[in-house]
Amino acid sequence: MFSENMPSSISKVAIIGLLGAVIWLAVLNIYNGVVHEPRFFVVSIVGFSLFLMSKLAMVKKGYLISFGTGNMSTFAANFYRVGYWLMVVGVLGTLFGPSI
Residue 92 is part of which domain span? Predict the structure, then answer.
C-alpha cells in the first residue's frame, strides 16, 4: 500500500477536530436561533448518514481508520463522496442561508 499520500496522525486528529468543531458550531447556531436557514441542517444529517454508512462498511471489512475511497467498493465510494458533498452544502447553508 502506498503511504506517501496518507495523512499523519496529527493531520488525522486535526481533520476530525475541525469537522467536529464545524458541526458543533452549526448545532450551536441552530440552538441560539442565529441561523439563516436551519432546514439546511437536515441536508447535513443526510450527508453524514451516507458518509457513516460507507465508513461502517469499511469497519466491517477490518479497516478501523481509513481516509479516502481507495479500499471502498464503488457503491460505498459514491455514498462517501455524496455524503461529504451534502455535509458541506448543509453546513454552508446553515451558516449562510440560501445565498450560497
Answer: 9-99
If one counts the domains in the chain, the total is: 1
Q: What is the 3-state secondary structure (H, E, C) of the chain?
A: CCCCCCCCHHHHHHHHHHHHHHHHHHHHHHHHCCCCCCCHHHHHHHHHHHHHHHHHHHHHHCCCCCCCCCCCCHHHHHHHHHHHHHHHHHHHHHHHHHHC
Positive or negative CA dihedral for 96, 27, 13, 70?
Answer: negative
Q: What phi, psi does 79 have (nearest 5°)?
A: -60, -40
Determine, yes or no, domain membership for 38: yes
Note whether residue 4 is domain-resident: no
- Angle in degrees, 0-180, between the axes of helices 40-61 and 74-96, rounded to the nearest 10: 150
pLDDT, tens digit, 9 for 90 and up, residues 16-49? 888 888 778 777 777 887 767 778 888 989 999 9
